[in-house]
């Protein structure tokens, strides 16, 4: 059975950066199950998986435009420390949900310098080409509940 819209695919993957460092991977006992065609995974990987079937193995390079986007330097801002009222200690790596005119945005603290806090609203993988090594384990029809939800049922 091929991976097509409204089917559930189960995959193992390893994601690496341009230097070959592992960024993420599925664990051997917990493959990723996703509903194909619902945008549950990044577009470039979903497109590459279309038409594949159980037993297939593929290498996929996903450009930023079809991954986590191109970096937007306008999303990097310096804020006064008092913008973080109620937070005792602000440190690099901390994440906060910011309210924007477009809705909520997850921001990461990248630098703290005295009363200045630099935040970055880009996804940590924005601007990077992503390299996937993928094994397709299984493809099945989605259940009616999964079709209504637009995602694979948790197991």
UniProtKB/TrEMBL annotation:
Belongs to the FKBP-type PPIase family. Pfam families: FKBP_C. PANTHER family: FKBP-TYPE PEPTIDYL-PROLYL CIS-TRANS ISOMERASE SLYD. The lineage of its organism: Bacteria, Pseudomonadati, Pseudomonadota, Gammaproteobacteria, Lysobacterales. This is Peptidyl-prolyl cis-trans isomerase. One of its GO terms (molecular function) is peptidyl-prolyl cis-trans isomerase activity. Signal peptide: none annotated. It comes from Luteimonas wenzhouensis. Its EC number is 5.2.1.8. It catalyses: [protein]-peptidylproline (omega=180) = [protein]-peptidylproline (omega=0).
């Amino acid at each position: 059975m091929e991976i097509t819209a409204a089917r559930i695919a189960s995959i193992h993957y390893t994601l690496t950066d341009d230097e070959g460092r592992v960024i993420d991977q599925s664990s051997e006992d917990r493959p990723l199950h996703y509903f194909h065609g619902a945008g549950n995974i990044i577009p470039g990987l979903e497109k590459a998986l279309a038409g594949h079937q159980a037993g297939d193995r593929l290498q996929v390079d996903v450009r930023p435009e079809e991954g986590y986007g191109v970096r937007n330097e306008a999303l990097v801002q310096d804020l006064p420390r008092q913008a973080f009222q109620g937070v005792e200690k602000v440190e690099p790596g901390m994440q906060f949900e910011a309210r924007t005119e477009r809705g909520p945005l997850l921001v990461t603290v990248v630098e703290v310098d005295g009363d200045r806090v630099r935040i970055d609203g880009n996804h940590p993988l924005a601007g990077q080409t992503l390299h996937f090594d993928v094994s397709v384990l299984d493809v099945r029809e989605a259940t009616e509940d999964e079709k209504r939800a637009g995602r694979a049922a948790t197991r």
